[in-house]
Amino acid sequence: MTSYRTLAPSPTTVTGPPLRLVFGSLLRADFLVFLKHRRALITSMLLPLFVLVSTSGNKSTQKFGGAEFVIGLAIAYGLLSTSLIGYALTVARDREKGVFQRLRVTPAPTWTIMTSRLALQALANLLLAIVTVIIGSMIHHISPSAGQYALVLLVSILAGAVFLSLGQALVGLVKSADSVQAGARVLFAVLILLGLLGQSGALGPFWSSVARWSPVGAVMTLFAGVLDLHSWYSRDTLSVLACLGYVVVFAGIGIRWFQWDAR
Amino acid sequence: MPETVQVLRDGQTRAYVLAEEREDGSLLLAPQPVPSAQDKLLAEDGRAAAVVHADVVGILHVRDLTVAYGPKTAVDGVSFEIRRGEIFGLLGPNGAGKTSTLSAIEGLVKPRSGTILLDGIDSRRHPNQARARMGVQLQATSFQAELKITQIVRLYAGLYGVELSEQQIGDRLREIGLEGESNKPFKQLSGGQQQRLSLLIAVVHDPALLLLDEPTAGLDPQSRRQLWGRIESIRQGGGSILLTTHSMEEAQAVCDRVAIIDNGALLTVETPHDLIEKHKNDPRVSAVAHGAVTLEDVFIGLTGSEIRD
Question: Cβ of B155 and A37 within 8 Å?
Fold first, then answer.
């Protein structure tokens, strides 16, 4: 009779490190980076401020569809600046330096690396939107209610998502940081001109319509809608759908073709 | 959970489930069902888990690994095994496939085919679980430029599931002589300091296998010797190491066994001493040797003298 020794079950299973600790570590590090870049956030406020101040006259305000549209335009441009140029360029540069490659050889799931960055960018977007609404309300003499502020925050999240997904698409399709920078500037200029000239009607009805349904136009319409809820109508609802569509398409492109290595 | 027993038969240990204990005292054993690597396993806390093939003896098994970038095959059917507690060197000229092999093991590139078992875990199916058991020092390391040294150490410790206090981080930095640099960003460190910090981060979780891609490239002789000492002390602590290098002196001084790879194919795997003994009379080696045959002579003899880019 052979005697046998009872042992622990074999084979066994193992897991990676706790997700809470992994994600917490990434968020803390990205927050520290965010704090280091606070000057960039302040600088990105300059464009919305310029829009708010340069349209402060009654005539100018009316030309752009009213105070609510102007504030919407200012927030849209600010978000476009931080998300398209700021976010996309930071990601492209970190990729080129090999920061992502170093992170990817850890057990952190790749979605945590990107989600942590996007979460901090969303925070920056919210801060920018709140400050712009407060300053815009003072300059253009409107008094949004607490509910409207809450709606502005909601729309800021959606608008930020539109421009972040646009930035993600750019950094997904273009590898080199220099090319991302050049592409972001061109896209930024096109979208700003489209917003300013198209929305003012200076380019005629066709371009006015294109501008209205462009990412900037759709976002502007939404901000104007929530700042003047009495005039909310079907076009605003369609703008929500347009924004969601942009997020799905651009984020899909940016995630599908994103490469972690710049080589 | 059924009681399991292990039976030594023909020199191999097999796991069985105790199916029945008969009245005469004999045991009826049934083969233990082995979870398939394809099975989606969950740990007690609901997170994804990986099967550990406990019958695997070596720390790393690479079988028929093929890595291709478009039409170009960088690694072509490479197989090797690293034993526990071994320092294994992967040598090869530029573009031979060293970094591609390492990248496949690290999960940075997706192999076209092949199997990689790290400490019993199929790293292609369970990359994150496999990465939790390996430490990596890349050829060109870059950390977030805005972070200070202590913040970088805390970040990467957290990513490996290790929570370190300020005191513990300070102690670890002291061990590598960087206690005075803790508030500096990574880029302000010298090459040797950067290398020491990268190694500290690579072993912050006491990995079963450490992967070092040209760890002494660009270091002065003092820093290089110091790093060799650290590599040896990691091995003495129970770690296994896979390193790539262009330095034959390094391979000879540090590695227990070396593999030479060229044009994506593995040419040989031997101890440095056996490699020299085996090939010292090879006409290709004799043709490039000046006096006593060295590991570098064997390397150049086997891979050719032409310069690679």
Answer: no
CB contact under 8 A, A33 and B144: yes
- Give the span between the Cα atoms of B111 and B125, in whole angstroms: 12
Q: What is the DSSP letter of B180?
A: G
CB A255 within 8 A of CB A168: yes
Q: Which residues, 6+ apart, have CB-to-CB distance to B114 below 8 Å?
A: B62, B63, B64, B65, B66, B77, B78, B104
Cβ A171 vs Cβ A258: under 8 Å: yes
- Pick A99's closest partner by Cβ from B51, B144, B162: B144
Question: What single DSSP character describes residue A255?
Answer: H
Ordered mean pLDDT values, 10 residues apiece, chain B (309 residues): 62 63 65 49 55 67 95 95 94 91 93 94 91 91 89 96 94 92 90 90 94 88 87 90 91 93 93 92 88 88 75
Using a 10 angstrom Cβ sphere, with 0-12 exposed, 13-18 middle and 19 or more buried, the burial of residue B5 is middle
Question: What ipTM did this prediction achieve?
Answer: 0.81
* Cα B139 to Cα B136: distance, rounded to the nearest angstrom: 10
Rounded CA-CA distance A10/B1 in Å is 12
